[in-house]
Amino acid sequence: MPLNALTRALGHPERSAFAHAASLPAASKRLNRLALMAPSQKQVGFTLIELMSVLIIVSVLAVTGLTKLMPTSLFELQAARSQLVLALGQAQQKALFHPAPIRLSSLSNTLDIRQDLNGDGLFQANESIRWGAVQYPLSLVNRVQVSSHTLDYSSLGDVTPTVITLSKAGKTLSVTVSASGWVE
């Protein structure tokens, strides 16, 4: 805004810019009086900080409350299913790329993949494999039970078809393994 227009807005059209600079305190007093003449209604509402604080507190309480109310056994069964499917896939991969026989066994809440390194047909405890960061035997999450099975993989990744059952707290989940090693 040009300085001459500013002087007109402040109610002093006859003064020059230099004369106006000397009377700035008087102009600010006039603006303050104009602001005080506005209706003096008290503003009602919340600040943005107050609203955000309440939103964060409510969301933390909701997440905490919902996790206590939701049945965790379903999530644990899904996690155990993921572990089982991963173990089945790893056993099949190992059978395809290594000449030694591979056996996956499930018992209670444990999965184990063993490789018959010495070719004696006995899959001994010291023949459990390590796949990346996973060392077998592997315990399933939170005491999820798995049905007892022994799956021997051929060098083509084939296996005897079977249905493996996972259970916890009266809930069950079935995993079907086809003859080709495909998991459903």
General description of the model:
By secondary structure, the protein is of the alpha+beta class. The protein has two domains: 1-38, no CATH class; 73-177, 3-Layer(bab) Sandwich (minor pseudopilin epsh fold). The chain contains five helices and nine strands; from the N terminus they run αααααβββββββββ. It has helices at 3-9, 17-22, 24-37, 48-69, 72-97, and strands at 102-107, 110-115, 130-131, 134-135, 138-139, 145-146, 149-153, 162-168, 171-177. The strands form three sheets. A four-stranded antiparallel sheet has the order 5-2-1-7, with helices on one face. The protein has a three-stranded antiparallel sheet with strand order 6-8-9, covered by helices on one side. Strand 1 (102-107) and strand 2 (110-115) form a beta hairpin. The longest helix has 26 residues, at 72-97. It is elongated and about 100 Å long. The mean pLDDT is 81.
Q: How would you write the strand order of the largest sheet?
A: 5-2-1-7
Structural class given helices, strands, pairing? Answer: alpha+beta
Sketch the topology as an H/E string, one letter per element. Answer: HHHHHEEEEEEEEE
What's the number of domains? 2
Using the coordinates shown, work out and report the CATH topology of the largest domain: minor pseudopilin epsh fold
Query: For the terminal residues, how far apart are their CA atoms?
Result: 74 Å
Looking at the structure, what is the overall shape? elongated
Strand content: 15-25%
Helix content: 40-55%
Rg calculated over all Cα atoms: 38 Å
Compute the number of helices: 5
Largest sheet: 4 strands, antiparallel
Task: Using the 3D structure, state the CATH architecture of the largest domain.
Answer: 3-Layer(bab) Sandwich
Quick check: average pLDDT?
A: 81
Low-confidence runs = none
